[in-house]
C-alpha cells in the first residue's frame, strides 16, 4: 500500500481493518494520517507474538519488545489514532491516546467509527507536551510510549523530549516512527535525545515489506541508566 491523500485510509491489522478518516484541508497536521503511524503498526504486526501457546514461526528478535501483556501505554500526538488503535489490536490493551485540543474532534471521530472493530472506545486525553499538570494527570510512568511523525517544528522538540522522559518508566521503551520533516528540528531532536536515551534503530529490512517507505524509520528509545554515586569507604 502506498500513502494516499484519500479522505479514508484503510489499515488492515491481522484479521481486522481500521477505517481512518482524515481531513487534509485542516489547519492542524494531526487531522491527517501520516506514513510513520502505518509503518509502526505494520512493523509491530509483523513481529508481535501471536496470542496463545503458538507465538509464531521462527526466531523473533522483537518478541520481548512487542509482548504487550499487562503493559501500560500512552501515545503522544495521536492525531487520527492510527498507531494507538493498531497497536491496541496487536495486544496493547491498556493505552491512552493524547493530542492537543484542536485535534480531539478528529481523534474522537475515528475512535467512534472504529468502535465495532475495537469493541470499545479507547481512552483519550488532551495533552500539551509543556503542560506539567496534564502530564501528571496521566499518572506516569508508562511501560510504552508511542510517537509517530511528531518531529516537525523546532520549538516543540524540547517539550516533546521532556514529555517522553517524564512519561516513560525507567525500564520502559519509546517506540518512535520517524521521518525527517524539518532539518532544524531534526538536528535538535537527535542532539537532545542522545543525552537522555539509548537509541536503537530498527533495520529497514525488519519493517513490514509493504510498509517500508524509504524515508521512514522505526526507533526504540530506552532511558539511559543514571550513574550511581560511588559509596565512600567508611
From TrEMBL:
UniProt cross-references to CDD domains, sorted A to Z: AdoMet_MTases
Alphabetized SUPFAM superfamilies for the sequence: S-adenosyl-L-methionine-dependent methyltransferases
Matching InterPro entries: Methyltransf_16, SAM-dependent_MTases_sf
GO biological process: methylation
Keywords: Methyltransferase, Transferase
Single Gene Ontology MF annotation: methyltransferase activity
Domain of life: Eukaryota
Pfam families: Methyltransf_16 (PF10294)
Protein name per Swiss-Prot or TrEMBL: Lysine methyltransferase
Native species: Trema orientale
Amino acid at each position: 500500500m502506498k500513502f494516499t491523500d484519500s479522505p479514508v485510509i484503510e489499515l488492515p491489522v491481522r484479521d481486522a481493518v481500521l477505517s481512518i478518516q482524515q481531513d487534509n484541508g485542516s489547519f492542524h497536521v494531526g487531522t491527517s494520517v501520516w506514513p510513520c503511524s502505518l509503518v509502526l503498526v505494520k512493523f509491530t504486526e509483523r513481529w508481535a507474538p501471536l496470542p496463545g501457546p503458538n507465538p509464531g514461526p521462527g526466531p523473533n528478535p522483537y518478541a520481548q519488545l512487542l509482548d504487550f501483556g499487562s503493559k501500560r501505554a500512552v501515545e503522544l500526538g495521536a492525531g487520527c489514532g492510527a498507531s494507538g488503535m493498531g497497536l491496541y489490536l496487536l495486544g496493547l490493551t491498556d493505552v491512552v491516546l493524547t493530542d492537543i485540543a484542536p485535534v480531539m474532534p478528529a481523534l474522537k471521530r475515528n475512535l467512534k467509527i472504529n468502535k465495532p472493530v475495537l469493541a470499545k472506545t479507547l481512552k483519550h486525553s488532551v495533552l500539551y507536551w509543556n503542560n506539567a499538570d496534564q502530564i501528571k494527570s496521566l499518572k506516569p510512568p508508562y511501560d510504552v510510549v508511542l510517537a509517530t511523525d511528531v518531529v516537525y517544528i523546532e520549538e516543540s522538540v524540547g517539550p516533546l523530549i521532556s514529555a517522553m522522559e517524564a512519561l516513560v518508566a525507567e525500564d520502559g521503551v519509546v517506540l518512535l516512527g520517524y521521518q525527517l520533516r524539518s532539518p532544524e528540528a531534526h538536528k535538535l531532536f537527535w542532539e537532545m535525545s542522545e543525552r537522555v536515551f539509548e537509541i536503537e534503530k530498527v533495520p529497514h529490512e525488519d519493517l513490514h515489506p509493504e510498509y517500508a517507505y524509504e524515508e521512514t524509520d522505526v526507533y526504540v528509545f530506552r532511558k539511559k541508566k543514571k550513574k550511581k554515586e560511588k559509596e565512600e569507604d567508611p
